[in-house]
């Protein structure tokens, strides 16, 4: 789970005689997004760059070495080029981004206090994970690639959509199939859980809108560092948690507030991946926090969002009369701070992978501790 909350892919931006690796978190919110009604509305505009100059320098083929078949199946950078349509479809859904949503469902089920290790509850949880991960996360990832297709045609023309490895009709049909499949599963779960109000369906539908406006113009939330990163954090932490808890119990206002607070930590995690793409983001007009505030200020905003959020949650648990859970969460925060000083604050570009691999497992375990505390 070392990278469950952060998945990175790289697009290379060419500026003059220099190239920059836009290794930037570009994951849309992963509950689901609402696609446009017609293909004409599914359009995206490339950033204001000199297209002819950039395209002449863009690579026509994947990087030397052919890429990795394993990376292709996971949907991450360094992927091999593939002709098998099913493998290409899987690549567009980026399976490496599914685990955060699956973990969120686990936390929500734990927080409900009503999950039992019997066949029915296990089957419900697996179906909820299928809705949150492969269907709705896969949907939003495919949609995001669709809206980035013109930019990818300049920077990475060998990617599945701009290279023509999969047709526009096939991409659009995949978007609709995954969306309707996810919403359909949400409806089934509501009936299975005996809900008078289709809570899970409404959550999926709300997440759909959030995901859509994250990727699609004119709002395109991911262009704004504050709003986009918080939407990303909420989609990874709050929405799947709410789905898991609503499936097995009752989604209460205090849990909604608590998980939204935790989503601020998700905002901080998203910022970690903004540092490598500062030059590219400037060229594309993306206002990531390192671009807006400078790298030195942004790295302190990043660790502040992560640490202060968790300390606030620990304080909440202590005030709620759950000192042991609060101490457990505090024990999980300490190593994160140590790794921040050891790696991230020294050089957020050089040590970002080491920091994420070292610190994030403790944050993920802290989520489960908070969920378990909420169930008692």
Automatic annotation (TrEMBL):
It is a multi-pass membrane protein. NCBIfam families: ChlG, chlor_syn_BchG, PRK07566.1. Pfam families: UbiA. Keywords: Chlorophyll biosynthesis, Membrane, Transmembrane, Transmembrane helix. Its main location: membrane. Gene3D superfamilies: UbiA prenyltransferase. The chain crosses the membrane at residues 175-193, 199-214, 226-243, 255-272, 324-345. This is Chlorophyll synthase. It is found in: Membrane. The keyword Transmembrane helix applies. CDD domains: PT_UbiA_chlorophyll (cd13958). The lineage of its organism: Eukaryota, Viridiplantae, Streptophyta, Embryophyta, Tracheophyta. It comes from the Eukaryota. It comes from Hibiscus sabdariffa. InterPro entries: Chl_synth, ChlG, Prenyltransferase_related, UbiA_prenyltransferase, UbiA_sf.
